[in-house]
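Hi F.,

I've been meaning to write this up properly since the lab meeting, where we talked about keeping a consistent format for the predictions we share between groups. The idea is simple: the sequence comes first, exactly as it goes in, then the structure tokens exactly as they come out, then a line or two of notes. No screenshots and no reformatting. I'm using this chain as the first example so we have something concrete to point to.
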Amino acid sequence: MTIDPDTFLTTVYATVDDFCAQHPGPLRPGPKPVMGDSEVLTVMLLKAWYGTSERGALAWVQARFPAAFPHLLTPSAFNRRARALAFEMAQLLHELSGHLTIGDDVYEILDGLPIPVATTERGQRRRCLLPEAADIGRGGTGKGWYYGVSLLGCVSAAGVITGFVTAPANDAERWQASALISWRHDPTAVPMDVEAITPPRGHGRTLTGPVGHQLSPTTAGETVAGVYLADRGFAGTEWQQVWRRRYGATVITPETLEPDDRHWFHHARQRIETVFAVLTDVLHIKHPRVRTEAGLITRIVSACTAFNLGIFINRRFDRPDLAHGTLFRA
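Output, unedited:
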């Protein structure tokens, strides 16, 4: 059953407004803004379903819900407010996660999602777009080349996003896992570097440390169970020992399991593939059309929060958790 758009909007706004009432933002000097924080956050979430350009999404919101947002900001003014509210959006992400994962804390699932921000040719030629946060790397099902960032997502057994970090596309997934796990342990910590890992004897290669900027401690979230299911990209006895010793985190990869347990393991990990499909196909997380690190984090955290909010609304209306594509007609 598809939810009526006005009912959908009312549910989103009521949820956001309740959150803002419980977590009021800092007082800002100057006149009262035309749009309140609740309204800006609501539009940020609605835009995730519509996708496309900033101007196009705002025009759609104004045309679809004219009575709800009679004083919609211009695209540039809206962008400034959205970036200023990125921290509040991350708080909403984690609050929804905490509400949705009650009783769902046996393990979490880790995996990476490539997020292109420009064509590979443009990235090779200029490297001017997000020079510290993005680079050329390989990822995805076909391990193709792209210019952008790698999102390391962490989801619960039911598929609720519990946190994420991003890094340049050429950064190894294990460094991203180290950043996420360490920031969950201590948000002020500096993630570990090569000095923490002793390569096994006969390794034959020089270990390369983290590359570029890893973003961000505010989106990493909190530890739900301390047990993570990950693919072979996170394998390595030395790495897993360091994660367990430093942060109390147990990272399980297929080669650490008995053959009889691997079928269950791969079946359980399918949940994060479904989550990434929804983020890509419904919430338009790829090609975010940003030029700054702040803009990048704002777009990504908005899409992830919209995902958790979609699960929240689906449960309220007795719909399947991951039926975001049929939630309402844009």
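Notes:
The chain has two domains: 5-94+288-326, 104-281.
Residues 293-316 form the longest helix (24 residues).

If this format works for you, I'll send the rest the same way.

G.
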